[in-house]
Amino acid sequence: MASYKNKKVITIGIVSELTGLTERKIRYYEERKLIFPDRSSGGTRKFSFHDIELLMDIAEKMEDGMQTFEIRKQAKRAETEFEAKNRMRRGQLNAAFNMRKG
Q1: What is the C-alpha to C-alpha distance for residues 36 and 46, in angstroms, rounded to an integer?
Q2: 74 Cβ contact list (under 8 Å, min separation 6)
Q3: First-last CA distance in the chain
Q4: What is the C-alpha to C-alpha distance for residues 50 and 57, in angstroms, rounded to an integer?
Q5: Alpha helix locations (H) across 1-102?
């Protein structure tokens, strides 16, 4: 079952109200490949609560002087590290399971 935080159901207007970011700035972050909203059949952007948290993090980093390419690079590095940790955990679980099985 998917977490409610990941369901993309919030429109850009509501996201703007919740975050204090302008719709223009939110679209800019999307253009810079920092945020990836879904689109409805009519083309309306749909965001999740997780996206809102990410937007707040992006805005804070921008205020601190980071450039969008640095934020994107940092996000990619974090994603890679997360995936590596998950692979390691799966390997450990598989090894533990196989040891008990044999």
Answers
A1: 9
A2: 61, 66
A3: 33
A4: 11
A5: 12-19, 23-31, 49-63, 68-101
3-state secondary structure of 67: coil
> What tokens appear for 82 in the block?
């997360």
CA atoms 43, 49, 51, 57: torsion sign = positive
Cα separation, 18 vs 15, whole angstroms: 5
> For residue 17, what are the CA distances in angstroms to 20, 25, 39, 79, 83?
5, 13, 19, 28, 33
Distance CA(20)–CA(15), nearest Å, equals: 8
Tens of pLDDT, residue by residue over 44-86, are 999 999 999 999 999 999 999 999 999 999 988 888 877 778 7
Tokens 């205020």 -> residue: 63
The reported pTM is 0.74
